[in-house]
């Protein structure tokens, strides 16, 4: 629709304003992460830009430096003890292991099932699809309480066996992401004409060969998009990890431990939060094209 | 099938259901995952809910009615149900309306709009627990930038604790929820708007229809399927909301922001009454199943 120049200007201005409002919390968060404590907790006013930027929050959370030592080095006098609890290096490693591990498991399982559901006609196909969809609708809280007991009985909780603890959380994340990955991949497989693998099989390829060598390479984009979404959902998950783990701390759970009854360590919270958001930001910008399809479980295409 | 036989001849020792011609090997891993980590715990949850936890001996005694009767007469369950529905309803309304308005605003091919659409997706990937903390920081009565803004405008008395007051705590939590998930609606509405055919709108413009008329008579009806899918997916996630409530208010003050999921969590972490926590979480599952089935049946939506 053609708009007059004046209306077009107003529209542009409103669009920039609205986008700005939505970006503001992220900006404020990142800004807080480079503020010294005195600028975060000013009792009388909100500090905008009149502070000396500091990297101390990143140094403590990402590099395990001791805050009290840094405070002395900087000539700021006494610091607060207990830097160890804010050292988040192990949490970053835990989050990477769990997110990558669960993405791999989800994708292997989902690719196989999605291919069969897209290509083969068999009894119970629709029932299976409904089961998968039902899995997506299930509130995680409904399975996590008994799962903790089951894991404890098997000696699989992280305080019983650290390695099995990883496996336990990886598998439950794989289950959480399975419906979205499976349904998204199925919609990509559905886009590939059936003649393609039929032709390969007439030439003597087995099902497995035609899947691996012909069809799978044609849905590379879909596999990449599904993997990225699985990674992001695992990276940001909170409830399952909170209930299931005591020693392994993924980043979202680790940050929540910085909120304490005696006061919130906003500097550390914002620093770790900003650092944790950066990989997600990069990934989400890479899959813009398939985002809508992914978020609607393959039912809407852009 | 000639093709199938050729393969059977290659590996004659394999039974047919183990070859790649049969769906079984393809579906087995997914089935195993869903049975072991989904169905079995669900079965266990139902079983656990039939036991009574003896507070003194900490032993579980089989008593199938106990927890379900207790839940029925538990005022906190009804309060949590009310809060869950209120939370879901208000959040859905704002996310849908704002999502549609922002999608209409950003649906343009002019320079810069693509960048703005991409920026709008960023809130979606911030961990919800971190979003909750962002708003915890900004809503703080003494140094929160949002709270200070509202105080500066004279809407709130100085130092007012938004999240610490029963009458405003829910609104505070909802702000975080709405900020994070409105972009989800924007994205889906944009995809819907972009897939609309052009001709009806050109015809309507020739007939002298105003843009507002065109929106209500053409855009909305043609987008009904897209809107229904978005509402369904979002509604299910809203009914099991946990992160914002847990981090921002921990269901408080009192039970002012207690939802079904957060109540179950409180029982779990509070007095470790696993049977009752299981019962409440199964009620959450029932709520999701009933409302989503009704929604899909009544509006004939299919994912």
What does this protein look like?
The complex is a heterodimer of chains A (302) and B (303). Chain A has 302 residues and is mostly helical. Chain A has a domain at 90-295: MetI-like (MetI-like fold, Orthogonal Bundle), CATH 1.10.3720.10. Chain A has 15 helices and 2 strands. Chain A has helices at 5-33, 37-40, 56-63, 67-73, 89-119, 125-137, 140-154, 162-191, 194-202, 207-218, 220-236, 239-244, 251-256, 266-286, 291-295; strands spanning 259-260, 263-264. The longest helix of chain A is centred in the middle third of the chain and has 31 residues, at 89-119. Chain A is globular, with a radius of gyration of 24 Å. Chain B is mainly alpha-helical. Chain B has helices spanning 2-10, 23-48, 66-72, 75-106, 113-120, 128-138, 145-152, 169-194, 199-206, 211-222, 224-239, 243-248, 260-271, 274-299, and strands at residues 51-53, 60-62. Mean pLDDT of chain B is 87; it is low at 1-7. At the A-B interface, helix 1, helix 5, helix 6, helix 7 and helix 8 of A face helix 1, helix 2, helix 4, helix 5 and helix 6 of B.
What's the short version?
The complex is a heterodimer of chains A (302) and B (303). Chain A is built from 15 helices and two strands.
List the helices and strands and how they pair.
The complex is a heterodimer of chains A (302) and B (303).
Chain A: H1 5-33, H2 37-40, H3 56-63, H4 67-73, H5 89-119, H6 125-137, H7 140-154, H8 162-191, H9 194-202, H10 207-218, H11 220-236, H12 239-244, H13 251-256, E1 259-260, E2 263-264, H14 266-286, H15 291-295
Antiparallel strand pairs in A: 1-2
Chain B: H1 2-10, H2 23-48, E1 51-53, E2 60-62, H3 66-72, H4 75-106, H5 113-120, H6 128-138, H7 145-152, H8 169-194, H9 199-206, H10 211-222, H11 224-239, H12 243-248, H13 260-271, H14 274-299
Antiparallel strand pairs in B: 1-2
Helix pairs in contact in B: 4-8, 4-11, 4-13, 6-8, 8-11, 11-14, 13-14
